Amino acid sequence: MAHNYIIRVTAGTVRDVKEHAVVPVNTADPLHITSDLIDARLSVRVKNYGGLPRGSPADSPYFSVEPHAYNNDQYSIAFSFKLKRPPGPATQWRKAYVRKASPSCCPSFAPPHTRFRSRHAPRLLPRRPVRPARLQGKIANAFGERLRRAVRRREGHDAAVRRYRRALVREASIVVPDEAAGSLDSETGYGIQ
Hints:
Helices cover 18% and strands 18% of the residues. The chain has helices at 68-71, 138-152, 157-171, and strands spanning 10-11, 21-22, 31-34, 38-46, 75-83, 181-185, 189-192. The strands form two sheets. A five-stranded antiparallel β-sheet has the order 3-4-5-6-7, with no helix packed on it. Helix 2 (138-152) packs antiparallel against helix 3. The protein is extended and about 60 Å long.
């Protein structure tokens, strides 16, 4: 079924697709997007790409480098941005897709709209959970105590870890300071520079 579709990747500062720019796929040069709120750079890589614009490279060197070769990654959406206004702590993170990639259209694509969920500003939710050793403060103490109780009640380590990950998704937050630049790579997680 996927062979019946041609992919075109666009991005812009408004939801109207007619005002979007076509994103160059599998190229070294990112698409620059500028508005009165943000300066952003966007790079999209798709393995075995045959979409628009015609003549785009079929692959990127990104997929031959570890860990992407070992994981057999199929795509990557990476961007960096610098906020102009409002200040970082007043911003809200959200991905907005005009059309969601469905498994029937792109079987190798995971639904991107399920990767990050946020109800409160400012929050970024990591793709992979943070290891307990990296946690600090109240969250680490609360998890340690929950885990000890779970083992004592013989609920098992896996059940406690699942509850901990759900709690992390509810409580994890990152505050982006004024004039900070941030970047996100959907394959490796997120980071603030």
